[in-house]
Specification:
Blueprint lengths: L3 E7 L4 H11 L6 E8 L6 H7 L4 E3 L2 H4 L1 H14 L4 E4 L8 H5 L5 E5 L14 H10 L3 E8 L9 E8 L6 H29 L5
Parallel strand pairs: 1-2, 1-4, 2-3, 4-5
Antiparallel strand pairs: 5-6, 6-7
């Protein structure tokens, strides 16, 4: 079976990357293989995780390169490693519409809320959970969606709800959403897309 080659783009610790790598090792992504990790931050611990799993890894530092060269660097790496699918796993840089258009229905993103709640400008990382708690919701969760030209836009692939508990801090809620939703949804969504591409079906 011809597997789709996956690049995971990261910016920080790489907990979502770890979930994907564990899932792949457990056979949960049979139609895909993680072939490359690209970090936007040269100090990202995700690079250490990639090294431990023997996955090729590289850095594309937007601060050093500038926006245009940053995307050119990513594109060159994707071509070099013959990537078919891109997974944004805690990737904090916004990709341009021009870049996204070159990868139709092949870029997945995980967002730590039930889209359309708590998404858009300024809603990333811990900020999402701060807003959820400030708003007083009883249920939050995570969403994996295909990326289009609109931030947090595109077809929703999977969502999972997570209960907000009394006494939650943003950090506690973030951890629960990762454990109960993000780490489960990402591998499933990656397999969903890779399988569709392998079988020549629409996603």
């Amino acid at each position: 079976m011809l597997k789709q080659r996956i690049a995971v783009l990261v910016s920080g610790g790489g907990t979502n990357l770890e979930a994907l790598l564990k899932a792949e090792r457990a056979g949960a992504i049979p139609h895909g293989e993680i072939a490359l990790v690209i970090a936007s931050n040269p100090e990202a611990y995700a690079l250490v995780r990639a090294e431990r799993y023997g996955v090729a890894h590289a850095v594309a530092d937007k601060k050093t390169l500038g926006a245009e060269a940053f995307e050119a660097r990513i594109e060159a790496l994707l071509q070099e490693y013959q990537i078919d699918v891109i997974v944004l796993a805690g990737f904090l840089s916004i990709l341009s519409a021009v870049f996204v258009q070159r990868w139709p229905n092949r870029i997945l993103n995980v967002h730590p809320s039930l889209i359309p709640a708590f998404c858009g400008k300024g809603c990333y990382g811990l900020h999402v959970h701060e807003r959820a708690l400030a708003y007083g919701v009883k249920v939050t969760g995570a969403t994996v969606h295909l990326v289009n030209e609109v931030p947090d836009g595109g077809k929703i692939l999977l969502q999972k709800a997570v209960e907000v508990q009394e006494g939650d801090t943003p950090e506690l809620l973030q951890r629960r959403v990762m454990e109960q939703a993000e780490w489960q949804l990402l591998p499933r969504a990656a397999e969903l897309v890779c399988r569709a591409l392998s079988e020549g079906k629409e996603i």
